[in-house]
Amino acid sequence: MTYDTSLLDAEIKDLILEAVAERNTTLYDTEKDVKKVIRDAVKAIAIGIASGVFSIGSREKKLLDAAVGKIAAGIAEVLSGRMSATITTAAKPVTVPLIEAANSAGLGKLNRSLEVGFQKRELKVFENLWQFERHGRTLSARIWDVSESAVKEIKAILEAGVGQDAVQVARALTAYVKEDAKTWAKNYPNMQARMAGRVPGNVNYEALRLARTELTTAYRDSAVAACINNPMVRAIRWMLSGAHPMQDICDDYAVRDYYGLGPGMYPPGDYPDLAHPNDLCFPAPVSIGRKALEAKLAGYVEDQTSAPDVGALLEG
Ligand SMILES: [Zn+2]
After folding, report:
1. How many structural domains is the chain composed of?
2. Interval between CA 3 and ligand 1 midpoint (Å)
3. For 237-250, how does the pLDDT look when each residue is reduced to its tens digit (9 = 90+)?
4. Domain carrying residue 16
5. Cα angle: 141, vertex 154, 212; to 5 degrees
6. 3-state DSSP call for residue 77?
7. Is residue 182 part of a domain?
8. CA 111 to chain centre
9. Is 307 part of any domain?
10. Do the domain assignments include residue 163?
11. Comparing C-alpha atoms, which of 132, 154, 137 is closest to residue 68?
12. Is residue 115 part of a domain?
């Protein structure tokens, strides 16, 4: 993942890079966790299969149904924890320096209110993500959908094993979530043949895509929310991810000057939504500068009408 970091605001560059690195580590860790949730559910099916000649009876159907619930609960738990961590991380580049500036401007007494205000915002971002409907489905419903679709892949494997020795089927199932499709097809040629040429899909694919999209959205939404009415923020820059293989809408967002603030710069309230699934672009705040911020905060204490954004921020 490469970004043109020379574009970042020098004063808060390290904080931004730290936050994005943390987001990317979280994405990686979450993928591992989601894969494990699915692997564990598959293991439980493999263990539960009746011995002898394999068939899909009521016992196997029950195992598959239980797997949907187990996967959905597991993904929801993983995502919930990771999203809330990412939300806090994303806000830091514009919360930490603001609180420091308030301290050095002799306004430490404002800090408790600022902290509470930002915490409220972070909580709101978290709640909104769970309530938000994509294609008419809330996040919980979408988690259920990807769990069902993972179990559908698992069921296809089981169907290919009907009539074979159950031990072999259980082994093939466990191998399926560990190996890539090609290796699996090579190791279990009979089952692959019985899938009538249908290349087995990746059981994790949809769940991983959902997890990645929710986490990058959580980061985006929180980074932007922390900038709104934030007296230190001048604009937000669209930082283009170097991971784009082709030109897409992100390239446009990163270079066009829509608001007269400079190429790729947006007022916090008008920062674009995540452009596409798996997008790793990120919002980078641009500050008014430490000196100007301290002057603004000092001015606010003298005369509250001088900096309405500070007032709005304190009101949450
Ligand atoms: Zn992008």
Report:
1. 1
2. 11
3. 999 988 777 778 99
4. 5-144+207-315
5. 45
6. helix
7. no
8. 29
9. yes
10. no
11. 154
12. yes
